[in-house]
Amino acid sequence: MGCSECCIKCLSGIPYASLIATILLYAGVALFCGCGHEALSGTVTILQNYFEVVRSPVDALDVFTMIDILKYVIYGVAAAFFVYGILLMVEGFFTTGAIRDLYGDFKITTCGRCVSAWFIMLTYIFMLAWLGVTAFTSLPVFMYFNIWNTCQNTTLVEGANLCFDLRQFGIVTTNEEKKVCTGSEKFYKMCESNELDLTFHLFVCALAGAGAAVIAMVHYLMVLAANWAYVKDACRMQKYEDIKTKEEQELHDIHSTRSKERLNAYT
């Protein structure tokens, strides 16, 4: 019986809302970082093999340098949000009933309120950042969708002379003519290759991962707002209990003093 009560108490202390948000965050970040990294590698292969874009020999800010920077940013995002998810889980544990019972009804209420407010502000900023990341990730998805859709309908564009010019997307400078036109051998090779189809779907998965991270941030905001309200109510309740205890002690002292006075007067 005692063991079952202990298990029920431990399960009641698990912050399920924070746990669901953390799982969703980790899944979204893993999907975005993993698929985004491989999609960028596939983009490099497509640019080199079919658009004949070469890496600049000097230390210039070309498209390949930007892709390398984005890869390092992905590494940083994966590490940062792994740590942030752990911190949010710890914060969730410290505002559950089991932890409050362990530490005495959350005695450090001022610190708890400050920590909750800080996490709310930080999570809101991260939610806006992930919204920007989602919007940025939709750009390569749109570009690859146009190319992929044209390849899927090659019979409909046989008579038309359509070209995919990298200058339209700002990938190369305006004085460089790097394009692939329908009807050319490079166009058919690119459409038949696995790189285009795989890279397009990897970018779609990365976009889905960024969207999942946004949903996780919104979920965290709701959880943190509820935790902050709980800590605020706990602070008020503790002040009420302190005032009540003080008044009861004063009444007890008054009754004790009167009892002693009556006893002295009787004797």
TrEMBL record:
Family matches, as PROSITE patterns: MYELIN_PLP_1
Topology with respect to the bilayer: Multi-pass membrane protein
Localization per Swiss-Prot or TrEMBL: Cell projection, Dendritic spine; Membrane
Pfam families referenced in this protein's UniProt entry, alphabetically: Myelin_PLP
Keyword DNA-binding attached: no
InterPro entries documented for this protein: Myelin_PLP, Myelin_PLP_CS
SMART domains xrefs: PLP (SM00002)
One cellular component term from this protein's GO annotations in UniProt: filopodium
GO BP terms, alphabetized: neuron projection development
Stated family: Belongs to the myelin proteolipid protein family.
The protein's assembly and partners: Interacts with OPRM1. Interacts with palmitoyltransferase ZDHHC17/HIP14; the interaction leads to palmitoylation of GPM6A.
Protein name as it appears in the record: Neuronal membrane glycoprotein M6-a
Highest classification ranks of the organism: Eukaryota, Metazoa, Chordata, Craniata, Vertebrata
Gene expressing this chain: GPM6A
